[in-house]
Amino acid sequence: MRSANSIARIAPDREAILRRHPFLRHTDKPVTLAAVVLLVATAARLAPAGSEPQSALIGYSPSAGQQELALEKDYQSLASRDEIQKFHRYLTSEPHPAGSQRNNELAQWVADQWKQQGLEDVTIHEYDVLNSTPHEISLDMIEPKPYRALLREAPYDVDPDTKNPRATGAFLGYSASGEVTAPVVYAHSGNPEDYALLRKHGIEVRGKIVLVRYSNPYSYRGFKALTAEREGAAAILIYSDPAEDGYKKGAVFPDGPWGPETHIQRGAITYDFLEPGDPLTPGWASVPGAKRIPISEAISLPKIMGVPLSWHDAEPLLENMDGPVAPDSWQGGLPIKYRLGGKRVRVHLKVDMNTGVQPYYVTEARIRGADLPDEWVILGNHRDAWVYGAFDPSSGTASMLELTRDLGQMLKRGIRPRRTLVICSWDGEEYALTGSTEWGEQFADELRQKAVAYLNVDSSAGGPVFHGSPVASLAPVLVDVTRTLPAPSGKTLYDEWKQTAQIERHAPGPPPDSELADTRIGSGSDHTVFLNFLGIPTVGLQFDGPYGVYHSLYDDYYWMNHFGDPGYQYHALMTQLWGGLALRLANADFLPYDFEFYGSNIRQFVDELDQRSHVKASGHVDLESLYRRIAEFQNAGREFNSAAAAALRGSLDEATTNRINTALIQIERNWCNPAGIPGRPWFKHTLYAARFTYAHLELPGLTEAAEAEDWQRAAQQETILENELQKNTALLKQARKDLQAAMHGEKR
Fold first, then answer.
1. What residues contact 649, with CB distance under 8 A and at least 6 apart?
2. Cis link prior to 254 (omega < 30° from 0)?
3. Cis, bond preceding 53 (omega within 30 deg of 0)
4. pLDDT at 746
5. Which of 58, 125, 205, 332 might form a disulfide with 592, Cβ 3.0–4.6 angstroms?
6. Angle 712-718-720 (CA atoms, 0-180°, nearest 5)?
7. pLDDT in the model for residue 36
8. Which CATH superfamily includes the segment(s) 62-129+357-587?
9. Positions of the chain with pLDDT lower than 50, given as ranges
10. To the nearest whole percent, how much of the chain has pLDDT over 70?
11. DSSP string, 543-561
12. In the chain, where does the domain assigned CATH 1.20.930.40 lie?
């Protein structure tokens, strides 16, 4: 994972550099450290893009590593932008929300594609889940003057898809039904601190309708709904302000990528930060005939009405508000003075939702492993969209279908990965991460035993800016894979990633490799069940760009071909990256986890917790003991890495290799506490979770206890983490001993 420009920092001794770059030994001149660094840097500059000197691949013997790179290059050459565009157009030709006839047809269509491509064990799984669609929704301002909200998006002649009568209007999944006439209060972003400010101004929201913005700062709409419900509001209206995703950002659709006047951000307001999946089968799979709890007992279902608005429909409410002028930070992009309201504007809201159990379908296929069929690398993308979902998620589905087409071609040539690849098209992600959660709960025992990693692509390509979100153990291998991929600029993806990361972070120089990947993982996509419930290491992959049409009618084929990814270059690059990473994991001798790096990340998590705490956690919890356990784990990871590298230069028997990999798979599982996070027992991972806002939350049990200043609970959570660190340290030490014993036996 280390580049030439970081060698002096990471490996400052001459012999370490020579071991990494053995070609330098062939010079007949004395080699000083400075000369070595200069020669390495020069070699890297002179090498063409993608061909910088590469050390042995993580987890591979030298010969196997060379074969793997050749295999990945072969795979990369197969990606076809034309084929991806065909897949994408078919997927986006009709709206396909979860539960719709079209989305159910797509489940079968994906299965048919995979069968034609030569994939194996193609299966469609049915889950009977609670679904939520609109029957009737209306919003009328009755005071101080009448206005009926459109609650629909305007069509454009240049884009015939915007005229499709099958596209729904404004609604929020799992909204409560009801009818109310009440005053409107402007509550900014709808976070708890916003209601605290309203109270300071003497404004009560109980029994009123709150109007909030989607962003500024961002929080998940379900958290906004829960907060409004807790405040006693009668309903919540969530609108898209042009300051966040509209004309204040740049040209709007159909002339640019940002949201036009009538764009509506649909979505669900499920409380899936408490418990994802089908609300009526919490913790078990909603297979046909499964036991269900009453709707009244479902903790993830809102009890408040909610409707999304365009700024076109929000502006008449905002411009007629009374009350104090809102703070500067609450002012938005509309040419009006935003006020807090509470009396003058009154509206009549009616929400009538169809809520009932109906089938969702998860489509699954496999390429069975040649050597290790019971070790699985899982790839997934959700299929359901709020309308067309050109970026979210159809770009990911198109990239996935090209990935399977390319792997199918290789399979027909007799090229089969060592481990099994399991590929899944999820349903119902937009409602409650539903399909992936139900599948994960159904096959939980088998997944805990066999899963190597889960590679998630929600939305594939909406621009050129790459974001990779792995658990820390998989960050180094992700960085390594990006070095091998040519990007549209002519540079490698690795080089593009470095440059865009520097720009995004406003840094004076490119970040080091150790900081490229974002190892702070929140929720909001299908990785959640794998990481937080099952303890399976995950990686999220996505290319981003200017995007103001999220969950709207305008996230369509026209938008993608004019603004998101014209020419489907980054779709193809995602196909190459996603499949290349899967092959790298599937074919490795030793699974390419880096637990030394994981240890350093855990140390950072503890540092950040102590620095962020209002009251220093270190004054109340024995963090020194925790730091010692982290150091032991990190050292064990370092020693295992050294032993594995030495073993890979020799030869090992299959039984030893399999025993080592079984131990390595167990390490991520061991971060899961069967009792779960206090208050949220479904979430079991002690290192990773999400806040109610969906934002990342590291060391969740310990962090939430420290933030509540519940030091008894914090001490209990710290002890759980220490025990897990000890268990995983022992696993790594035993794995190193097994390796060394096997190597000594070989020498004898």
1. 61, 62
2. yes
3. no
4. 54
5. 58
6. 110
7. 28
8. Zn peptidases (3.40.630.10)
9. 1-53, 747-748
10. 92
11. EE-----TTSTTSSHHHII
12. 595-747
Beta strands per DSSP E along 537-682: 538-544
List, in sequence order, the alpha helices (H) in 185-310: 192-200, 221-230, 242-245
Amino acid at 269: I
Using CA atoms, how far apart are residues 66 and 584, in angstroms rounded to an integer? 12
Q: What is the pLDDT of residue 131?
A: 97
Find, among 708, 725, 559, the residue nearest to 628 by Cα. 725
Q: What is the 3-state secondary structure (H, E, C) of 691-722?
A: CCCCCEEECHHHHHHHHCCCHHHHHHHHHHHH
Question: From the CB of residue 330, how many other CB atoms can be counted at a distance below 10 Å?
Answer: 18
| The residue type at 236 | I
| Parts of the chain belonging to CATH 3.50.30.30 | 132-356
The CATH class given to the 595-747 domain equals: mainly alpha
DSSP character string of 146-175: -EE---S---BTTBGGGG-TTS--S-EETP
Quote the CA–CA distance of 53 and 482 in Å, as a whole number: 14
Would you say 191 and 367 are in contact if contact means Cβ atoms under 8 Å apart? no
Q: Label residue 42 exposed, middle or buried (CB < 10 Å: 0-12, 13-18, 19+).
A: exposed
pLDDT score at 55: 59
| Residue range(s) in the chain whose domain bears CATH number 3.40.630.10 | 62-129+357-587
- Rounded CA-CA distance 641/591 in Å is 11
- Residue 748 pLDDT: 34
**What is the per-residue pLDDT for 652?**
82
pLDDT at 35: 29
Task: Given CATH 3.30.300.30, say whether it is the number of domain 132-356.
Answer: no
pLDDT of residue 17: 29
